[in-house]
Amino acid sequence: MSTGQRRSALSYIPGLKDNAVLKLIIFTASAYMMLALSWAVIMIVYVGNGEVFNTYFLSNISLTSVHQFSTHWWTVLTYGWFQQPNSFMELLSSMLWLYCFGSVVQMLVGGRQIAPLFTYALIAGGLFYMLAQLLPGKAGMVMPAFLGARAGIMAMAIAAITLTPHYRFYLTETFSVPLMGVVIVFSALMIYGSGFNIPILALLLAGGAAGFAYIRLLKAGYRLGEWPYKLIDKLESTVTPSEQPKVKRKGNTISMYQPRKGISQYTIDDILDKINQKGYNSLSREEKDILLRAGKE
């Protein structure tokens, strides 16, 4: 079998316009750079006084104590888009994991599901992080300020194996790594890196549960990620002049271009079953095109 027939999802890299995972990574990296620059400026201006940065920046974007939730409720969303200013290597590893799992999800269900899935997972993880602090004793102890996209990445990992548990990454012509194994290694690293802190473990569990639930609901026909796009489309339609429908002439007759018919869920399910049984590289060019078009609908 030729190399071109055995490419993994990591070799299926669409351009920036259609690559929601890459856009998410760029956005997160930009947020990190802005936070790191703010930290550097404050450390220079206030001669190394980190309390100013903690008071005016970290306290307003990071997960902290559950007792501050009523006045800082928005942090259950903002914490996942930033990293600590001095943790570039953690940012780099997080983005590599995100692309590893996100590329599989994007390939199978389309880029429009990436940002909603990631965002819902952050919210679920943040809420469970707060709830876990209500446990008695040391079980509910938390870090001074928690930042990072662990919940969102865990959601991508679980979403990927929910879609295609038997998928394999082909690193060479004859050597491949099972997606399930990669997810297990990633999960073990996340658990070990949490220091077995209960609120962080609750955050990871909630993120994974959000990824599983999102895909199951998507398969059942519930498109939880469509409303932001519909809202944007509606706002754009209010400021964009309506276009006249295109027509084509055949002799003396005029016929309207009909919109392309939607792809049935049965077709998508058959393709996903084929991926589960034989891998993505077993798909024909037509089946890959169907997946790509379905993701853009």
How does this model look, in words?
Helix content is 59%, strand content 5%. A hairpin with a 5-residue loop joins strand 1 and strand 2. The protein has a two-stranded antiparallel sheet with strand order 1-2. A two-stranded antiparallel ribbon has the order 3-4. Helix 4 packs across helix 11. By secondary structure, the protein is mostly helical. The chain contains eleven helices and four strands. The N terminus is likely disordered.
Total domain modules: 1
- Low-pLDDT stretches are 1-12, 244-261
Instruction: Please give the count of helices.
Output: 11
Q: Roughly what percent helix?
A: 55-70%
Determine the structural class based on helices, strands and strand pairing.
mainly alpha
CATH class: Mainly Alpha
Sheet bearing the most strands, described? 2 strands, antiparallel
SSE string: HHHHHHEEHHHEEHH
Spatial shape: globular
Please report the distance between the alpha carbons of the first and last residues: 32 Å
- List the strand order in the largest sheet: 1-2
Proportion of beta-strand residues: under 5%
Looking at CATH, the homologous superfamily is: Rhomboid-like
Which architecture name does CATH use? Answer: Up-down Bundle
User: What's the CATH topology name?
Assistant: Rhomboid-like fold
Write the layout of secondary structure elements.
Elements: H1 20-45, H2 50-61, H3 75-78, H4 88-109, H5 114-132, H6 150-163, E1 168-170, E2 176-178, H7 179-193, H8 198-219, H9 226-239, E3 247-250, E4 253-256, H10 265-278, H11 285-296
Antiparallel strand pairs: 1-2, 3-4
